[in-house]
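Technical annex, item 7. During the second reporting period the consortium partners agreed on a shared format for inverse folding records so that results from different sites could be compared directly. Each record opens with the tokenized structure and is followed by the designed sequence. A conforming record, contributed by the partner at site C, is shown below for reference.
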């Protein structure tokens, strides 16, 4: 059964159970608590591997309605209607009118299914969802449930367990096991998952919240003003191990640190003042090495022109190369060497014996929009490096110039404005490169786009990216100081795509990309202004990744 069908059956069963006799007595007479992840974790069994909490407060989701183009909002509405379970339409019910008024948060937990003597061919079937639906308005919940109980094909079979009624619900969507546990309706396609939840709720077995790591993770304040969805993975190593036992890939090692060093991961999505906010929190184990985190000063941003439409910035490329090599492991290719070999093949110059130890300062790799009518040169690639030893850097450049000349490049000195520059031009193909210096220790390199890219780099300080309004609006929503930025001017990139499509297909709209992108995806893409991302380590064993997506307004 697909996930959508499985969740449809679970939610349908929840409503049917809410109209049962025992549920009616409990829901009618007992007070309710405010739904939150930690309250739900006190009902979940200890076997939960990971869980996702979805806010159902109307105001939180209503905040999203102030963003997006009309086409994007229409696309979201279409997909939302398609996601609503079939049983709601069959019973003439709708989520906004019949479910939203009473639901008080949704926790979707993942529990490992007890292996059988003959396991299913699909190893993914070894994982089962366990849902907890919080109740806000009991009278409305009972009213909705009673409508569903009259549907054809619905049968119930109740079994008392430790003072709790476990109900097996058969609906047209399938069989689901359910129980009312305090302020929650618990549901799962696996009977043992509900039995474990009952035992946890009655105090017969430890709850998920009894784990110290779970309590810390679910109690954490991320500073997100309007959270919508939060995902919790309190024991990353155990999750990897269980995934491996099921024959599934438990995820590649995380950048900067290896998977074995990670204790827990939490992910969140919420509404920001400019659009959407994504946040990830990584906690390292006590025995793990402390990350050598040095925030960047951000000076490299002033070396890129305001026409930069994509950028990755950071610090100490030499150390990053060493980290990539360490993360590769014994049985994996050396990532640092692979990157170096790839550049050697691109330029036809052997870089293996070249000294790059002077790459200890900031760096930025970007794409710059170019004012040109040539469809193949609408953007140029650029690299800016802050060197900690200019003499060593110039010695390396001299060595590279000699190697390039031996491989058929014409190496020529010149000037771009008041800046001395050097260019490479291959005599037999269009391969081109240019570089120069911004005082005192910033080396700029035009990797593509020809002299137009080089000119913008040479003149960058007169109108830098760091002062560009859209870049500033995004980065001001990100924590600072930080390890650097990933920045995408999505609106400018989309315009570039439109120009290329118009050149090739004689139309001025991105809709001609329909064979590659669905219409709704294009509508959502056109609603995005820009994306900004950064990483920080506010504590030695705590890392945070924050991404903000700036959205257009209707």
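Designed sequence (site C submission):
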């Amino acid at each position: 059964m697909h996930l959508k069908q499985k969740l449809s059956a679970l939610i349908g069963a929840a409503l049917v159970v809410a109209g049962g006799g025992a549920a009616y007595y409990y829901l009618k007479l007992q007070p309710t608590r405010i739904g939150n992840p930690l309250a739900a974790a006190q009902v979940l069994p200890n076997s939960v591997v990971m869980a996702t909490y979805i806010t159902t407060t109307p105001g939180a989701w209503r905040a999203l309605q102030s963003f997006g183009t009309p086409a994007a909002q229409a696309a979201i509405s279409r997909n939302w209607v398609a996601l609503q379970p079939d049983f709601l339409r069959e019973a003439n019910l709708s989520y906004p009118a019949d479910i939203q008024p009473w639901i008080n948060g949704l926790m979707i937990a993942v529990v490992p299914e007890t292996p059988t003597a003959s396991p299913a061919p699909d190893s993914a079937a070894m994982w089962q969802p366990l849902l907890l639906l919080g109740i806000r308005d009991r009278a409305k919940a009972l009213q909705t449930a009673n409508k569903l109980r009259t549907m054809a094909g619905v049968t119930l079979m109740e079994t008392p367990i430790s003072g709790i009624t476990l109900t097996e619900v058969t609906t047209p969507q399938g069989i689901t096991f359910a129980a009312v546990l305090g302020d929650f309706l618990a549901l799962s396609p696996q009977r043992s998952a509900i039995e474990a939840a009952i035992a946890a709720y009655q105090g017969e077995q430890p709850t998920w919240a009894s784990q110290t790591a779970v309590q810390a993770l679910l109690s954490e304040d991320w500073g997100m003003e309007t959270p919508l969805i939060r995902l919790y993975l309190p024991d990353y190593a155990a999750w990897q191990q269980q995934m491996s036992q099921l024959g599934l890939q438990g995820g590649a090692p995380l950048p900067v640190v290896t998977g074995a060093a990670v204790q827990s991961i939490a992910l969140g999505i919420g509404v920001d003042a400019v659009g959407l906010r994504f946040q990830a929190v990584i906690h390292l184990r006590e025995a793990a090495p402390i990350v050598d985190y040095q925030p960047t000063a951000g000076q490299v941003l002033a070396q890129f022109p305001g026409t930069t439409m994509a950028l990755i910035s950071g610090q100490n490329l030499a150390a990053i190369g060493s980290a990539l090599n360490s993360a590769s492991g014994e049985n994996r290719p050396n990532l640092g060497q692979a990157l170096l070999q790839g550049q050697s093949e691109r330029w036809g110059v052997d870089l293996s014996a070249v000294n790059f130890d002077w790459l200890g300062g900031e760096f930025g790799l970007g794409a710059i929009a170019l004012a040109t009518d040539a469809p193949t040169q609408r953007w140029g690639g650029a690299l800016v490096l802050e060197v900690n030893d200019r003499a060593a850097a110039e010695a390396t450049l001299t060595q590279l110039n000699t190697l390039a000349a031996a491989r058929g490049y014409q190496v020529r000195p010149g000037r771009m404005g008041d800046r001395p520059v050097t260019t490479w031009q291959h005599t037999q193909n269009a391969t081109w490169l240019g570089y120069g210096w911004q005082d005192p220790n910033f080396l700029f390199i035009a990797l593509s786009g020809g002299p137009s890219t080089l000119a913008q780099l040479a003149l960058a300080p007169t109108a830098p990216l760091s002062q560009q309004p859209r870049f500033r609006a995004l980065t001001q929503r990100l924590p600072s100081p930080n390890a650097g930025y990933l920045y995408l001017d999505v609106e400018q990139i989309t315009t570039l795509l439109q120009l290329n499509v118009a050149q090739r297909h004689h139309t001025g709209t991105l809709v001609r990309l329909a064979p590659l992108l669905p219409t709704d995806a294009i509508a959502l893409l056109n609603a995005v202004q820009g994306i900004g991302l950064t990483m920080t380590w506010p504590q030695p064993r705590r890392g945070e990744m924050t991404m903000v997506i700036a959205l257009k307004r209707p």
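The chain has a mean pLDDT of 78. The first strand starts at residue 50 and ends at 54. All partners now use this format for quarterly exchanges.
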